[in-house]
Amino acid sequence: MIHYRSILQSALRRSPIHTRFLWRPVVRSVSTAAQPNASREPSRWTRRLVYTGIFGTLGIGAGKWLDNKISSPLDPGSLEDQMEIREIQRVFDIGLPIVQELRRNPDYVEKNVYENFADKHKTHRLTSGPLAGSRGLGLQKVFWNDKEKKIISVVFLGPGLEGWPTMVHGGALATVIDENLGRVAIRHFPSRTGVTANLELNYRAPVYSDNFYTLHTTLDQERSTDTKAYAKCEVRDMAGQLCVEATGLFVVPKTLKLNMVGEYF
């Protein structure tokens, strides 16, 4: 049997016309392919270097953040803890707009907390003992407005207060809120002392550790008496978002003798 296809292909290979058409596409494909590759190669390597830098930086940053989160909190009083406390204080002094605003307002007086306790007594208190240091309540400052019977407290909540990773424990928040409600209540009582009778909290948004927050605490002057004080508190982040709402009732015990807290916070 004659293979007509083989004969036809053999004839075409010998044909000058076929040779011309075969040659031209090859030349065109080589010339058109070589020029774009030459122009694209530098930009391709540039993009690769840029992507490498971006993702490398992100990876290093994420690694440091994760290492900070899973490492043990600093021991209170250690050299590292003291350095961290100084950094927290520096950010408080120069990095928080609300602090600058309150310091310019003559109606607010800035105070430290626990001024009525000696250092040896502070270690026996939850918030100034076990929760002290940069891992806990790294900073607490009180701005008191006597005209409005209002306190704005600025606090730093460290990683040792976490419940879930990166989130402050609700019980730790309740402790800080309870103390701030008690501050306005005790300043209202003529006896300058009192205890918590009722505390109610509503958690509105997550509160994250290693951050500053403000507690806006106000006395309900219309409902409060010499032995009962009603107060409310709002916890807000540095952007002003409401995180926690709380109300409290404080009383002066009739049968229990308590030490006078005094004019301090």
TrEMBL record:
Q: Which Pfam families match?
A: 4HBT
InterPro entries in the record, alphabetically?
Answer: HotDog_dom_sf (IPR029069), PTE-AB_protein (IPR052061), Thioestr_dom (IPR006683)
Q: Which CDD domains match?
A: PaaI_thioesterase
Tell me the ranges covered by the Thioesterase domain, including all copies.
167-242
PANTHER family, per this entry? UPF0644 PROTEIN PB2B4.06
Q: What is this protein called?
A: Thioesterase superfamily
Write down the species. Penicillium roqueforti (strain FM164)
